[in-house]
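Weekly modeling sync, notes
Attendees: S.R. (lead), two postdocs, one rotation student

Agenda item 3: backlog of single-chain predictions. S.R. asked that every request posted to the team notebook include the full sequence so nobody has to chase files. The rotation student volunteered to paste the first one in as an example of the format we agreed on. Action items at the bottom.

Example entry:
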Amino acid sequence: MSSRSDGLQVENLRVDVAGAGFDVVADVGFSVAPGTALGIVGESGSGKTTVAMALLGFARPGTTIVSGSVCIGGVDILALDESKLRSTRGRLVSYVPQNPSRALSPGMRVGRQIQEMADEHLSRSAAKDDSAALAALTAAQLPPDRETARRYPHQLSGGQQQRVAIAMALVCEPKLIVMDEPTTGLDVLTQKRLLGVIDGLRGRRDTCIVYISHDLGVVRELVDHVAVMYGGRIMEHAPVAELFRSPRHPYTRRLLEAIPRVNRPAGRLRGIAGYPVEPRNRPPGCPFTSRCEYRVERCGHEMPPGFGDGDHVTRCWRVSELPSLDAVSALLGGGTMLEIPSRADSEPLLRVDELVAGYRTRGRLARKRGTKVAVDRVSFALQPGQCLAVVGESGSGKTTLARCIAGLHDPFSGTIEYHGETLPGLSRRRPAAMRRRIQIVFQDPDSSLNPSMTVGAIIRRPLVQFFDLERSEQSRRVGELLERVHLSSSMASRLPRDLSGGEKQRVAIARAIAAEPELLVCDEITSALDVAVQASILELLEELRVSTAMSMLFVTHDLAVVRTIADSVLVMREGAVRELAQRETLFTAPRDEYTKLLLAAAPDLHDGDYPRWGLDESRELVSTGA
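Predicted structure, as returned to the notebook:
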C-alpha cells in the first residue's frame, strides 16, 4: 500500500507578482495519491496554470514562488537548486502542454524528441537504444514502430501530436504528470481517443496526475477529485461525483449552471455577472464577493477557512445557510432560449451551391503536383437571423468552408450567393459594404490579434474602416464593445500579451461585431473559453441575433454548445456533407452512422448532476427535485 509520501503533497503554496506586493495564488494546498488524478478547474485568470507551473518548480516571467512546498515522492522540488531541479524535471515530474504544435520542435523527428528526454534523465543503460521511446509510444497509443518515430510533427494530426507530447512525459516514468488543457481544440472523436490514453495512466501504480481544464464535462469523466479555483484561491475541494452532484460553494454552483449539455433539450445558459477578480484588485476576504448573490459584509473583509468534513471542503462563510440545490433548480427552472423570430419563408441570406475547395500541392517533380480537395460539393442555405452549426472531425473541411464564405479562401468551383448576389471568391474582390456585412472570428486569437497594438486600437480598426466617426465616438464605442463581451473598458490600453486566452478571444469577438455584421462566421471561438465566459459569449451572440437579426455560421467540435445555440446542424466528414437537419431532430433521431458516432463520443455530465433538470409533459425544462 502506498504512503502519502509516494504521491504529491502541496502545502501553503504562494506565488507573488515580483516587486508588486500582491500574490497571484496563495494558501494553495492539496494531495494526490499514486494512481489517482486531481482536476483543477476555474475561469481564465483563476490561477490554474500558475499552480501547474509551480508544480514543476517554475514561475512565469514577472512572478516568483515565495513560500510553500511541493513534495513529489518525498522530494520537495521547491527546496532544490537550479541544477538539481533541471535533473528532477522529467524524472520526478513531467508536463503535457495545451498546444503541442508549439512545444514540439518542428525540425526534429518525434522519436528523437522522445529519446532525448530519456537520454537526459535516465541512466545510460536505460537510454542506450530507442526501446524507451518505443515503449512510451505504446503507452500513448501510437504505433510503436520506427516509421512513426521518424515522422516530423507537421506530418501528424493534432491528436497524434498531443499523444507524442504524452509519450515524452511518460518516457522517464515520472511520479507526477501535469496536464494543462491537453484536449482543448480537439474534435470529440480525437478527444475521446486521447482521454482513453490519459485514463489508462491513472492505473499506473506509481503515477499521479494533475489535470488542468476548463472543460468540466471532461473533468467529470477523468479525475478522482476536483479543486475549484477562483482569484488565486481554492474555493472548494471534493471527490468528483460529490462535487458535481452536491456543489456547496456559490461559485461552483454558478460554474455548473453555465455548462451546456449534449443529452438535454436546449436551455438558456446562466453566465456569471461581473468580471473575474484581478490579483491587484482582490479584496482581503473572499475573492468571489463582488459577484456572489449571497454575500454579506463579512465576506469582503475576512477570508473564510475551509468548512466541511472528510474530503469535501468549502471556503464560504455562508455554506450552511445557502438554499438547497433543489430549491435553486426549481427557481431557475432550467431557463429557456431567447425567442428568435423564424424567417424560414424568407429569401435565404446565404446560399452555397456545389462548393468545391481545397489546396494545390506542389512538388519538385511535375508529376507530384496536384490538388487536395477539402470541401467536396457542399450545398446549404442559411436564413436571416438563424444559426447553422458545422461539426465534424479535424480535417473534415469545416474551417476551409468557413474561410471560403468569409472570402479568405478561393474555391475551385461552385457558388456562394449573399442576398441573391454571387460573391467573388476572395474578399479583396468584394465591395467594402459586403466585407463589412460578413465578419469572421478565428479559433486562435494569438494568431489573429496584432501583438504590437493595444486592445483599443484593435477594436477601433473596423470603426475607422467602415464608419465615418469622430475620434471621441470611436473611443466610446470601443468601451461599449468591451463591456458587451464582458471585459472592463480599462483593458483598452493593454496589449494582447497582458490578457488570458479567454480574454483575447473576447477581444476578437468585439472586433468582429464592431463592424455590425449581418453574418458572423465563428471558427471554434469557444474552444479556448472557460464555461462561465462561454455562457456569457453564447448569451451575447443570442442577444445579437435577436436585436439585429444577425445570422451565424458556427464551426465547432463542441456538440453541447451546438445544442445550445444552433437552429440547424451540418455534419461534415472528409469534405462532404453527411447529414443536415434541424437541431433537435439531429440530436434525438440522427440518421447517419457518423453523426451517431460523434454524439456517442461527446463528453457530458451525468444524470443527477447539478443543476438537475427534467422534462414535463409540456416539454418545458423544470427541476426534477431529485
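Discussion: group reviewed the output briefly. The two ends are 38 Å apart (CA to CA).
Action items: rotation student to repeat for the remaining queue; S.R. to check formatting next week.
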